[in-house]
Specification:
The complex is a heterotrimer of chains A (270), B (323) and C (335).
Chain A: H1 3-30, E1 33-35, E2 45-46, H2 49-55, H3 61-92, H4 98-110, H5 113-126, H6 133-159, H7 162-169, H8 174-203, H9 206-212, H10 219-228, H11 232-261
Antiparallel strand pairs in A: 1-2
Helix pairs in contact in A: 1-11, 2-11, 3-6, 3-8, 4-6, 5-9, 6-8, 6-9, 7-8, 8-11, 10-11
Chain B: H1 3-11, H2 16-25, H3 30-63, H4 78-85, H5 87-120, H6 127-133, H7 140-151, H8 156-163, H9 183-218, H10 223-252, H11 255-260, H12 268-276, H13 284-320
Chain C: E1 3-12, E2 15-25, E3 30-34, H1 41-49, E4 56-61, E5 64-65, E6 76-79, H2 91-101, H3 106-119, H4 135-148, E7 153-157, H5 165-182, E8 185-190, H6 193-199, E9 202-207, E10 210-215, H7 217-222, H8 227-232, E11 237-244, E12 247-249, E13 255-256, E14 262-268, E15 273-276, E16 282-289, E17 294-300, E18 303-309, E19 320-325, E20 331-334
Parallel strand pairs in C: 3-8, 3-9, 6-7, 7-8
Antiparallel strand pairs in C: 1-2, 1-4, 4-5, 9-10, 11-12, 11-14, 12-13, 14-20, 15-19, 16-17, 16-19, 17-18
Classes of the chains: A mainly alpha (270), B mainly alpha (323), C alpha+beta (335).
């Protein structure tokens, strides 16, 4: 390609990267801004007011953050486990209803979230799962499963059954095979689908609002009124903490994954 | 039969005890257990799936006025008809379609452009991809804040233009938020969806570019020609796939129209929720009818998606032949 | 096209693959690039075609330095090992693709492509999709497509590796026929010695990123430059010795030879040894039946020898024989 063509594309990429990083940086700055009024291009003063309000005891933000993280981790773990099981069935077996399973795995992505939420609300009320944490976990799970199933299906397909068959021939028991062969090989997929499920659950607003009915408070739910208020400093502080918390969870997932894979059992293929 | 004869009969089958043992063990035969495995594996998913489908179906029925708890048991189209006769509800449908279509198509075009730029300049791995993945981890609610901070009339862009002397006051800056043009909402969706589409398509595009694209170049095609005639057509299934996902999501998403939208017309999800939470339960069917419309539109998408997957499979077979 | 590679060094991800490599191919020649897997053959092809840039060295095509020529404009066309046929186009459109790129109009290019398909014996398959034809047919389509690009240099990357024997022979014959008809300078990458010996005007034997010997098949087989080259073609029995005034001296056999003085390995390939009844100081330790011949391994004089005979020798394992070395078949390898 021509030199100018190449340069043009590089400029496009740089602009694109800027458009992603700039807003994040702005919000990060605004969360520490004291006074930043029109028409100033930079904050006039910096202050920890926004942060203080967030971390203060009366806002309850820290507790909510903690419980939200735990809730989403719970959803992530369930989504990964069920996703991996379903993926395994889809990849290695032929069974009646396989196509139906493949198809319904994609449905929650295509059916609008609000339609699903308003449709399932009443049945959940009747099942006693509304207005409590169990219903919320359930609906988050339904939303995240399509993603974990897709990722685990790809990983399981790449992994194939050859290594497991080989181990079985060599005399390994199913438990040994699962722990020493299957698990380490699927680990990258488990971690990435776990992160995906976590972020989807942690980001949920409408679903938690409706099904939780005000009894289940997540950090996102707590955050929204501040976003609607005019106080950009506090809103930015909440957003900033949200991003940091998410980053930390990703790091933890990744480290946990790496710990399991370096357990002395290497895998036999990349 | 005498006792002796009976004993003799038994003695004629010396292995009868073993035979009985074998038959009773058939129930625990590993072969049967193996058959049950896939069904056990999909069981949790199946239960959740059924719950999901039940919820949708239930909502669907409610849109036709079948709500036993409110003593409404006869199917009727009156809620749908009324929606189509009320201008403010019609404009809800219109604004939803408009926002969804504009943001999805623009995201697809820009996403593919970015994807192409990344692949053609060799940045399809590494740090740049890390940057592309950042928006995935940031929720729509926070993106709404981004848009507010930057594109509001008192936002950063306005301030930059003011300091450059291009506008004289806040009100000279175009009104992008909370208006009927949905510009703020579209910008917010773009911020999330352009990287999503780029991320979705890039592994396919990189693979095709490095194999078939290389072959096309070797046969005399320049980089641009190769992209248009070989790479892009072969990526179309993945691109269409990504587009459908983005379209379906945007249609039914609540957060951004709620945070950045005008008070009228309201996007479908917002309007549906208002009807749903209306103290007068008689409004419930209207909410469901609005949901029904959203469902109907996305159902068409589901059909398109299904057809696409079938056609994909035959194309994929073509690709695998090259192995 | 006349091709010269001078001092070419190529590294991939900081790993050196080609190391100061020299090669020169004459106009209209068909040479084989022969070597074990991983020695850099495909890398060399890609460097010639411009898909990889060498870290050092010059590529000279028809006396012009081609290093900076873009990959789509060198006239060097590769038939890749994985064929890389376009799945979104029919067989005819695949073959017509290079013609389309060169601006030919639809009807002309379609008829030209049809003619090319005829020359690879695939007429009638024009409308098929790539995934609907067999592996051997796909190979021919790839070949026809490469020819459509009017290459001045045809680069074939292990084109017959995935074919079974019958198909491979057909394809080898096809390539030879096309070479005879079109006269395009051709470089054939292969790891199969028989194929290289049979098809090439000259063979370039590559090992570890360098060309170890570049000569006609007969010369490479009968006058290998070093033991590694001889080993690649099957090796045999090596006897260490010294030539003094045109006589080869060793502890096994002495014989007159025309080569200059120096230390040599005398290579006697298995057919060059005969079992005889004198001096039976060799013990048979192994006998293998290979269809057209028997292979014997014998032990004696503190070493092993292997010989091949056409008919079943009247011997048993443990039996004793003498060996006759056919000095006319001795291959002298300088050390």
């Amino acid at each position: 390609m021509t030199k100018t063509g190449y340069t043009f594309l590089k400029i496009v990429i740089k602009l694109f990267a800027f458009s992603i990083l700039f807003p994040v940086a702005i919000v990060a700055i605004w969360s520490f801004a004291g006074r930043w009024s029109w028409p100033q291009l930079l904050p006039e003063t910096f202050s920890l007011r926004g942060m203080a309000e967030l971390f203060s005891s009366y806002s309850g933000a820290m507790q909510t953050l903690g419980s939200s993280v735990l809730l989403s981790i719970m959803v992530a773990i369930l989504a990964v486990v069920i996703g991996a099981m379903t993926a395994r069935a889809l990849v290695f077996y032929n069974f009646t209803g396989k196509q139906a399973v493949e198809f319904s795995a994609v449905l929650p992505i295509i059916i609008p979230g609000t339609v699903f939420a308003m449709g399932i609300h009443v049945p959940l009320i009747r099942l006693g799962l509304a207005d409590n944490i169990y219903g919320v976990i359930l609906v988050h799970l339904i939303c995240t499963l399509p993603y974990t199933i897709k990722i685990m299906t790809d990983i399981t397909k790449a992994f194939g059954s050859k290594l497991e068959e080989q181990a079985a021939i060599l005399g390994a028991s199913p438990w040994q095979i699962a722990a020493d062969i299957t698990l380490p090989s699927l680990l990258p997929g488990l971690v990435s689908s776990g992160c995906m499920a976590y972020i989807i659950s942690f980001s949920q607003y409408f679903l938690t609002l409706l099904i939780g009915g005000g009894h289940v408070k997540t950090f996102t739910l707590l955050m929204v009124p501040y976003l609607q208020s005019g106080d950009r400093t506090v809103a930015s502080a909440y957003s900033f903490v949200f991003i940091i918390a998410t980053l930390l969870v990703f790091i933890v997932f990744d480290a946990a994954g790496r710990k399991f894979s370096h357990d002395g059992h290497g895998y036999l293929f990349t | 039969m005498s006792a002796d004869q009976q004993t003799a009969k038994i003695k004629l089958h010396p292995g009868w005890l073993e035979q009985i043992k074998r038959i009773s063990h058939k129930g625990f035969c590993p072969l049967n257990r193996a058959k049950a495995v896939p069904y056990l594996l999909i069981l949790p998913f199946a239960i959740l799936s059924l719950l999901f489908i039940y919820g949708i179906g239930n909502g669907f029925l409610q849109s036709f006025g079948i709500i036993p708890s409110l003593d409404l048991n006869t199917p009727t189209l009156k809620y749908y008809i009324e929606i189509f006769s009320r201008p403010e509800l019609l404009s809800s449908i219109w604004i939803s379609l408009y926002i969804t279509l504009v943001s999805s198509v623009t995201a697809a075009v820009l996403g593919v452009l970015i994807c192409a730029a990344l692949v053609l300049t060799g940045h399809d791995r590494g740090r740049m991809m890390g940057v592309v993945k950042i928006p995935i981890a940031i929720p729509h609610t926070v993106v709404a804040l981004f848009v507010i901070c930057i594109f509001a009339q008192s936002g950063l862009l306005a301030r930059v233009l003011y300091s450059l002397g291009l506008i004289s006051s806040q009100s000279s800056f175009p009104s992008l938020l909370y208006t009927g043009n949905g510009a703020g909402i579209i910008l917010a969706y773009l911020w999330k969806e352009v990287p999503f589409i780029a991320f979705f398509v890039i592994s396919v595009m990189a693979n095709i570019s490095s194999t078939l694209g290389e072959a096309a170049e070797n046969l005399g095609a320049g980089k641009w020609r190769t992209f248009i005639e070989v790479t892009l057509p072969l990526c179309m299934p993945a691109i269409k796939n990504a587009f459908l996902i983005v379209f379906a999501y945007t249609l039914g998403a609540y957060e951004l129209p709620y945070l950045l939208g005008a008070t009228a017309p309201r996007a479908l999800p917002v309007q549906a929720f208002i009807e749903y939470t209306h103290p007068d339960l008689q409004h419930r069917p209207y909410a469901m009818a609005l949901n029904g419309i959203m469902f109907f539109i996305s159902f068409i998408i589901v059909l398109l998606y299904y057809r696409l997957v079938q056609r994909d499979k035959s194309m994929m077979n073509g690709m695998n032949a090259n192995d | 096209m006349q091709l010269q590679m001078q001092n070419i060094s190529v590294s991939i991800n900081h790993k050196p693959i080609l190391d100061s490599l020299d090669l020169d191919v004459r106009e209209g020649e068909l040479i084989s690039l022969l070597g074990p897997s991983g020695c850099g053959k495909s890398t060399l092809l890609k460097s010639i075609a411009g898909l990889l840039s060498p870290q050092a060295g010059d590529i000279i095509m028809d006396d012009m330095t081609a290093n900076d020529w873009p990959a789509n404009n060198r006239g060097a066309v590769i038939v890749f090992q994985d064929l890389r046929l376009f799945p979104n186009m029919s067989v005819l459109d695949n073959v017509a693709f290079p013609l389309k790129i060169r601006g030919m109009d639809k009807d002309t290019r379609r008829s030209k492509a049809a003619k090319l398909l005829e020359s690879v014996q695939l007429s009638g398959l024009e409308k098929r999709k790539i995934n609907e034809i067999s592996g051997g047919q796909q190979q021919r389509v790839a070949l026809a497509r490469a020819l459509a690009a009017s290459p001045e240099l045809l680069l074939l990357d292990e084109p017959f590796a995935s074919l079974d024997d019958n198909l491979r022979q057909d394809m080898q014959q096809l390539v030879l026929d096309l070479h005879r008809e079109y006269g395009i300078t051709t470089i054939l990458v292969t790891h199969d010695q028989q194929e290289a010996l049979m098809m090439s005007n000259r063979i370039a034997l590559m090992m570890d990123g360098r060309i170890v010997q570049f000569d006609t098949p007969q010369n490479i087989y009968n006058a290998p430059a070093c033991k590694a080259v001889a080993d690649y073609f099957g090796g045999g029995n090596y006897i260490n010795g010294e030539v003094r005034t045109n006589v080869f001296h060793s502890d096994i056999v002495d014989f007159p030879t025309a080569v200059p003085d120096g230390r040599y390995l005398a290579l006697f390939r298995p057919p060059a040894l005969r079992p005889v009844k004198q001096d039976e100081c060799y013990r048979v330790i192994d006998m293998k039946y290979l269809g057209e011949k028997w292979e014997l391994n014998v032990e004696g004089n503190r070493r092993l020898f292997s010989l091949s005979v056409a008919a079943r020798p009247g011997l048993e394992i443990g039996g004793r024989i003498g060996l006759d070395f056919d000095i006319n078949q001795a291959v002298m390898i300088p050390q």
